Structure formats: C-alpha cells, structure tokens
Amino acid sequence: MKFFSTFILLLFFGKVAAQNSNSLPKDQFYLESTVLALRSTHTNYFNGFSLLFGDHLNQKFNLALGYEYSGSKFHNDNDWRLYNLSFNVILIREQFTLFSKKKFNLSADFREGLSFIKYVKEEPLVRKNYRYRVKEKGLYLYGGIDAKYEVSKCIAIVSDLGIKGLHMSTNVYEVNPHGLNFMVGLQVKI
Question: What residue range is the signal peptide (predicted)?
C-alpha cells in the first residue's frame, strides 16, 4: 500500500508541475508490457514478464507503477537445490532521459519494489530427499539503460539491459538471485 500511495502522490505533484509547461503533449499516460530474461550469477535463467502503467511527467522524467513475474524450474544456490521458484514483484520505476532524437530515446531506468517469493527447498548436505516449501518477502532493485523506438505516435518498441536483484538481503540463508537482465516489449500511449 505504501508503494501505491507514494506513486499516486508523485503522479499528482508531477502533473501539477507539468501543467505549467505548454510544450508537453496531452497523451502522456502509457501501458508497457515486456518479456524478460535474467541470467543469474549462478548461471541459471529466470524468465518472466512485466506490466507497467506510467506517466511522462515531463520531457525528461517518467514514473510508472508495475508488476513483474520471474520464475525458474531449478536454481542451485549455496549447495541448496531450489525448485519451482516464483518471484512476484510490485514495483515503482523511474526513468530519466539521457538522449533523445526524433523517434529514438535512451533513458536511465531504475526500479525498486517488494518481491514475494515462493519455492521448494532441498538441503542435500543436511537431509537427503527432503523438500519443503518456503515463502519470503524481500527488496527488489534494478538499474539499467532503456532504449525506445517510436513506431508510430502511439506505439513504441522498448528494450532494456541492466542489473537486477530479485531479493536483496543481508541474510545469507535467504535466496537472492541477481545478475544481468534483458527485457523487450511494447509501450502504448493511452
């Protein structure tokens, strides 16, 4: 609820400030959908998708509220065997335009969120052939570079390359997949 409240407040104050500028187009809201792949530092792949609803607050900054799902059938971490990993994330995204020319736009992309994690854990060094379910919550962080090419006035192709941590934690006994992430998808102005 804190994420949603913060997003609404930032959206409101950003819109109030943006109303003073006559150069902004009226179609600022957008929906974005991407497919994604994370290659973790343990050489496993986590695949998924993200959905975002956002607003271009001005020509250099946009803010979005979103949902992301990432999952993997198997992950080997600290001699643990983890099965059916599922990461559901509620996030806020901030983008700052670095370069813009005609239909092409390059931005710095930052995302923070809360991840809800489920998986089945096996600890073969402790007890063989015994598996149990685990549920955790954690901090989600992402930083990357986003490229956008406008196909038309309403539709753009987006791709993003960055570093992601699905569950940032100082507890060594929690699962924290992190690594290089790639996303590609569409952004539609509404």
Answer: 1-18
